[in-house]
Design goal:
Elements: H1 11-18, E1 23-28, H2 34-48, E2 53-58, H3 61-75, E3 81-84, E4 89-92, E5 97-102, E6 119-122, H4 130-137, E7 159-164, H5 171-179, E8 188-190, E9 204-211, H6 232-240, H7 256-259, E10 260-261, E11 271-277, E12 285-291, E13 296-298, E14 314-316, E15 321-328, H8 342-356, E16 364-366, H9 379-386, E17 394-395, H10 400-412, E18 414-417, E19 423-426, E20 429-432, H11 436-441, H12 463-473, H13 481-505
Parallel strand pairs: 1-7, 1-9, 2-5, 2-6, 6-7, 10-20, 11-16, 15-20, 16-17
Antiparallel strand pairs: 3-4, 4-5, 8-9, 11-12, 12-15, 13-14, 18-19
């Protein structure tokens, strides 16, 4: 008997249904039709695969009832699937089930430890805690059911699919897993999920499918106006699906369109220096910086191309600081360091600088933890020894209020008088697009709620921020080409004078 089902996927919903990735996030703006697509993804696989177990989650039971149980009762004909309230399931006549779950309390995931989830769907995943998502995801497998999967679906199952707006306890986790590693709608591999016993395993195939209000043709006209009373950052996150817009963000002035630039060849006379935040069990962060010796124009930056700026040029004022390279000691798991020794890290630093082909940094600054001694030389001393004196560190300024103010002032920038007489505010700090960890961690840092004037609180991944604060607190200086040439000429004269004195006394 044929049954008419009232669901016609829209283009972005169809992309979700047809994706062959094992791990999918449909995320972004509110009202994009994500939740409906999520539950119907479960329905489709249940219909095509008799005996399939699909788990559909919301954070609370009330959310589950309002957003999925009641809609499914309206959308699914009784002849297709029946709701069993006592079991919390929709049971299909072919033996498949949609099991409805929630994790209102942190450890509610323990209720599902013995489950074999052929398919896992987590709606509004940002509202869950990272540990809940990680634990539920560990139940996704086919087991003996693999032989029963229909031939067309063998490339789609097992399947873990999520939806979310920006924000919530798992904002950073989702951003790190889905947003930062690759461009939208492009499949990549999550190597944190690869099998350590299989050298050929690349991890789970993963994709991010962005959602916009315009993707849902059934959305009420003027729906975007309901966010007008919210804070600007929260409104931008929900209207535009911007994962960099975080309510209470410490670096609310940081903007990819203003502060991100492409990689470029650094003039040899510009000042270069290095900054470091040390960590072993937590990640360490090393950043390399340069200071513009004069006003400069970087062209052919594709992110800046517009009708007003067809060449994609970026103006860099004299004295501006650019973070152009990084080394981050991170396992890929929640704020977990690689536990390398200071000597190992020192040798990595030397290797990076060799590959960068830049001037030897004129100075290196690091946090005071590098001078801690526990029954032997400090990490700073070990670094110097491991590199035959090439890496000599100086202690950073630890004034959190002053350091935060320095970063904010440089992000805000200085007024610049253009040739047409108009005034434009130019940033005084930039970060190149290859500094992936900076762009992953900095936008999502939150203010310390007890001491907001001190900047980010002591939670989350603050390592790049701390390293950048140490860097800017040194008040780095600009050197023009003329000054650099004079400096090198004076050094040459001193060397020659030494040679003359040496031969005169020998």
């Amino acid at each position: 008997m044929a049954v008419l089902i009232d669901y016609l996927p829209q283009p972005k919903q169809l992309l979700m249904h047809n994706s062959k990735a094992r791990q999918i996030l449909a995320g972004g703006a509110a009202g994009g039709g994500k939740s409906k697509a999520l539950r119907w993804d479960c329905v489709f696989y249940c219909l095509r695969n008799p005996g399939l177990e699909a788990y559909l989650f919301r954070r609370t039971y009330k959310q589950l009832e309002d957003n999925h149980i009641r809609p499914l009762l309206r959308e699914l004909p009784w002849s297709v699937a029946q709701y069993r309230p006592s079991k919390g399931t929709f049971e299909f006549h072919n033996g498949s089930r949609i099991i409805l779950g929630h994790c209102e309390n942190t450890h509610d995931y323990l209720k599902y430890q013995g489950a074999e989830m052929h398919m896992l769907a987590i709606d509004e995943a940002g509202l869950f805690e990272p540990i809940q998502i990680i634990e539920l995801r560990s139940r996704v497998r086919l087991g003996e059911f693999a032989s029963k999967v229909s031939t067309p679906d063998r490339k789609y199952l097992p399947r873990c699919i999520m939806s979310s707006n920006p924000g919530g306890p798992s904002h950073n986790f989702l951003k790190r897993t889905f947003i930062s590693p690759g461009p939208p709608m492009t499949i990549f591999y999550d190597d944190t999920l690869k099998d350590p016993s299989d050298p050929n395993d690349k991890g789970w195939s993963t994709v991010y499918i962005p959602a916009r209000m315009s993707d849902n043709k059934y959305l009420d006209p003027g729906y975007a106006s309901v966010f007008a009373a919210m804070s600007p950052d929260r409104a931008r996150a929900l209207r535009e699906g911007d994962w960099d817009a975080v309510e209470g963000a410490a670096l609310h002035l940081l903007d990819r369109s203003r502060h991100m630039i492409r990689r470029f060849e650094i003039p040899q006379h510009w000042t270069t220096f290095m900054s470091m935040d040390w960590g072993t069990s937590a990640p360490f962060s090393v950043g390399w910086y340069c200071v513009a010796g004069e006003d400069a124009l970087i062209q052919n930056d594709s992110k800046r191309v517009s009708e007003e700026n067809p060449s994609g040029s970026v103006f860099i004022p004299q004295g501006a600081v650019i973070r152009f390279a990084e080394l981050y000691g991170w396992t890929g798991r929640e704020n977990e360091g690689v536990r390398k020794t200071s000597a190992e890290v020192a040798r990595e630093i030397m290797e990076v600088e060799s590959n960068l082909k830049i001037r030897t940094p004129e100075y290196r600054v690091a946090d005071s933890a590098m001078w801690a001694q526990f029954d032997g030389p400090s990490p700073a001393e070990r670094m110097m020894s491991a590199t035959d004196g090439h890496i000599i560190l100086s202690k950073s300024r630890k004034d959190r209020i002053a350091n935060y103010d320095e970063i904010c002032c440089r992000l805000a920038g200085n007024p610049f008088l253009k040739s047409d007489g108009k005034v434009e505010v130019q940033p005084m700090v930039f970060i190149t697009e290859n500094c992936i960890q900076a762009w992953r961690t900095l936008p999502s840092l939150l203010l310390d709620p007890m001491h907001p004037d001190k900047g980010p609180g002591d939670f989350g991944e603050t390592h790049v921020y701390d390293e950048m604060a140490y860097a800017l607190a040194t008040r780095p200086y600009a050197v023009s080409k003329r000054d650099r040439d004079l400096e090198e000429w004076e050094e040459t004269k001193r060397d020659r004078r030494k040679d003359v004195d040496h031969y005169a006394t020998s």
